[in-house]
Amino acid sequence: MNEERIRLIALDLDGTLLDSNKNIPPEFMPWVLAHPEIKVVIASGRQYYTLREQFAEISDRLVYIAENGAVVFDGDKRLSVSPMAKDDAKSVLDICLGLDDTDPMLCGLKSAYMLKGSGEVIEEANKYYARRMTVDSLYPYISEDDILKIAVFIPGFRAQEAYDAFPELPDGLAKALSGDSWIDIAPAGVDKGSALQAVQKLLGIRASESMAFGDFLNDVTMLRACDHSWAMANAHPELKAIAANITPYSNDENGVMWVIEGLVL
Predict the structure, then answer these.
(1) Phi/psi at 210 (nearest 5 deg)?
(2) Domains in the chain with CATH codes
């Protein structure tokens, strides 16, 4: 597999590196510390501040592609940010608040903002947003922060159904299925793949020297940016169809570690 040495590994979290209980494999952080020659990129729909907390022991050794590509940090140094236009954020919020049985969240550079909601959405938001405010109205924060995306929580694991029926968005915006309970809306072209390609260019690392792992449809562009692409055994069928490889083990069976520990470096 390694005609060229792997110099970069990009990893989705939920359903990929993390197990179903959201645990990081105990071998992962020691592996990163033992391989400083490989740039490890955490690519997630999660908030940057959440990622920093999760990987506190090695936080400065990682590149973070957060909010599905809208913001990129190398350790604590911000490399890029791609916010929504204020008018676009307002238009999307108007659409979301007009829908039944959805909970929109503004995902800003400073914080995430949500309305008071059910226990289910609060529990979900706590997993992904370390900096989060519950507010009476979302509209003022469109002006007060750079809005990176609008995350729409769909209860009952019906995100695919809601995605298929979602109203038409303004030109220049795109929706992404970010899990079985979330739809993310951001500027078109802002995704994990475009962010990863910018990181590769900055570091002088080719696609042939890059490896990526994912499990869901918001990982498609990231896998396409790497010649050594891996869909998890538990991945969405459409992701498996475009990946160069499929891990023999799922996220609950340490599928990522099985592959990277077997690399000939």
Answers:
(1) -120, 145
(2) 8-81+191-260 (3.40.50.1000), 86-187 (3.30.1240.10)
Q: Which residues pair with 104 in a beta bridge?
A: 152
Q: Which of 188, 199, 255 is nearest to 222 (CA)?
A: 199
| Residue 212 tokens, joined | 């990526």
**94 and 135 Cβ atoms separated by less than 8 Å:** no
Q: Residue 127 class from Cβ within 10 Å (0-12 exposed, 13-18 middle, 19+ buried)?
A: exposed
In angstroms, rounded to a whole number, what is the distance separating the alpha carbons of residues 149 and 152?
Answer: 10
CA neighbor of 205 nearest in space, from 235, 230, 226, 233 = 226
Q: What is the DSSP string of 73-103?
A: EETTEEEEE-PPPHHHHHHHHHHHHTSSS-E
Q: Tens-digit pLDDT profile for the chain (265 aa)?
A: 445 799 999 999 999 999 999 999 999 999 999 999 999 999 999 999 999 999 999 999 999 999 999 999 999 999 999 999 999 999 999 999 999 889 999 999 999 999 986 667 888 888 899 999 999 999 999 999 999 999 999 998 899 999 999 999 999 999 988 888 999 999 999 999 999 999 999 999 999 999 999 999 999 999 999 999 999 999 999 999 999 999 999 999 999 999 999 986 5
Buried b (16+ CB within 10 A) or exposed e, 145-178: bbbbbbbbbbbeeebeebbeebeeeeeebebbbb
Distance CA 153, CA 129 (A): 13
Task: Output the CA angle 225-217-231, nearest 5 degrees.
Answer: 65
Question: DSSP letters of 118-142?
Answer: -HHHHHHHHHH-SSEEEES-SHHHH
